[in-house]
Amino acid sequence: NAGVTQTPKFRILKIGQSMTLQCTQDMNHNYMYWYRQDPGMGLKLIYYSVGAGITDKGEVPNGYNVSRSTTEDFPLRLELAAPSQTSVYFCASSYSQTVPGEQFFGPGTRLTVL
Amino acid sequence: DAKTTQPTSMDCAEGRAANLPCNHSTISGNEYVYWYRQIHSQGPQYIIHGLKNNETNEMASLIITEDRKSSTLILPHATLRDTAVYYCIVSGAGSYQLTFGKGTKLSVIP
Predict the structure, then answer these.
(1) Which chain B positions have a beta carbon within 8 Å of A43's beta carbon?
(2) Whether the bond into B76 is cis, omega within 30 of 0
(3) Whole-number pLDDT of residue B25
């Protein structure tokens, strides 16, 4: 299993541009998550999904959108990029409804908005 | 979810046990204690979790006090590859949100 994969690894955007961060998992996990990590800080939850067609906001959803059309994929869309969205973005997945905190993380996407 | 308190940094000699403490004095009865680590520039890695009992897996042991107000993650024989930031997280059963604080930066020294 490849686990959780993310593309691209790095990206530089100009202010106002848009992009989609891709996330795929091959473990057949129902639950998927997007986090961001600012320099020197812990991770903050942006959005999560409990299954195909179901998404919900996390702690910091403003400026982002998500969709979940399949079990495997959970893309994160940035509209009108701003410098405040410069961060490392991690996608994660989990399988347990009782203990969803056991999450498997991807390698991250490093995004810079200039 | 309950708040956790961890030391900012710790050192450990290679080959010795690394004991990482965490305080979670406001933990409630259905909240789990999770431990993750993040090696520089990589995604966080799940280590272990527990509710009331002590737990052990191939990576580490988790000791939870009887009153559940604190816990200790034990890496029995630390290696240089264990140098990382270790996060202690408390989260309710069925809760999808993990709140990562700043964690403890563990440096394993040759």
Answers:
(1) 44, 98, 100
(2) no
(3) 93
